[in-house]
Amino acid sequence: MDLHMESMASSIGVSIPVLRFLLCFVATIPVSFVHRVIPGRLGKHVYAALSGAVLSYLSFGFSSNLHFLVPMLLGYGSMVLFRSHCGIMTFALGFGYLIGCHVHYMSGDAWKEGGIDATGALMVLTLKVISCAMNYNDGLLKEEDLRESQKKNRLIKLPSLIEYFGYCLCCASHFAGPVYEMKDYLDWTERKGIWARTEKGPSPSPYWATVRAVMQAAICMGIYLYLVPYYPLSRFTDSVYQEWGFWKRLSYQYMSGFTARWKYYFIWSISEASIIISGLGFSGWAPTDPPKPRWDRAKNVDILGVEFAKSAAELPLVWNIQVSTWLRHYVYDRLVPKGKKAGFVQLLATQTTSAVWHGLYPGYIIFFIQSALMIAGSKVIYRWQQATPPTKSFIKKIFVFMNFAYTVLVLNYSCVGFMVLSLHETISAYGSVYYIGTIVPILFFLLGYIIKPTRSARSSKARKDL
């Protein structure tokens, strides 16, 4: 068996631990399908918890489940004993334990060298545990004090321990997301809400949407395996790279980022297939004739939306969508004082939280600070575009193209830090193109305070929006 796995691993250019993870990861699709036929609510919760624990054991070993138990029990204990403060307590304890694991395992180095551990799954679990505690905490608040997302997701009643374990370890999203809410998990398991059986007809069929997601995953993996030999990350420290001219180095950074993204597209497409086949991915009926089922709950990336984003501010809406939604609901929105608008401080705090969640590597920290600058600069260009009168359509189109070119430049420059991780390699790669992806966002950010849309242009746009 080991010889067979070794030959399979070498044929696709990965290590045996990574191959073992990939096999278990793909197995989440049939395992999630079986969930559909498990009888009874209790049976479904037990199956969700056990299937996730077994696949974790097969992927990462017995210690992985012990690691998962720590934040799960800390979160549940805080809900039982300290409900009025369980949200902030679980946030601090969950992130604290995750940071400790990041420091202990230094998973980024292992991933770069072809290894893998349970830290990635622990990252997803941490977000689930925190959101569950915060929603239970919100159940104590008055409805008029809550945002719409809080009203929708708050928990009045404490979930039972088996419901909680099923939610945390449900294999369809346990390895790589997407993150979803405890209330949605309970409604799906109990066939309530949009999952309730009606007299209108049979439940929506997930099979074609699952096939589409699997086909997308296969295409993404094929593109990644084709491109990665031509654009290895090791090239950034190669003397040949330093001998290239500015434009060739800049284009190599673009292609490296472009290549790396297909790996994530593959991972999220498999997760999407698993969530859809289980039925949890269903998000309602599209207003068409006849109505068609939507499976947006499982969607974690819009590939074309990322590659052709017209603005950097659009990227959180199309990349790692469910984590971006989590950050907006549980960090960004909650940092905004009541009656005030969010600003750069909230954006920077949210991006820093995302950086720490990924790990304490300098490359992560730099990337997410960069991304805050990138989004802020893009918003400046967008404000100029919106303030341009409709009669000057050519100038408006120039701003649209400027924002697109800006996003392509800064995104692929910034993501080098996310890929290489170390401070030396990140600074070296940024310096090789004269820090253009840092200087340009800062310039636009500062220009936003100098060149402001006229009051008449802004009020005209506001009236038009109304």
> Could you state the oligomeric state of the chains shown?
single chain
Strands of the largest sheet, in order across it? 1-2
Structural class estimated from helices and strands = mainly alpha
Please tell me the overall pLDDT.
88
Count of the separate structural domains: 3
Shape: globular
Description:
By secondary structure, the protein is mostly helical. The chain folds into 3 domains: 1-195, no CATH class; 203-301, no CATH class; 310-454, no CATH class. The protein contains 23 helices and 2 strands. The chain has a two-stranded antiparallel ribbon. Helix 4 (62-81) packs parallel to helix 7 (119-138). The radius of gyration is 23 Å and the shape is globular. The termini are far apart. The relative contact order is 0.08. Residues 456-466 have low confidence and may be disordered.
Notable features of this structure?
single chain; 466 residues; mainly alpha; two-stranded antiparallel ribbon; 71% helix; globular; disordered C terminus
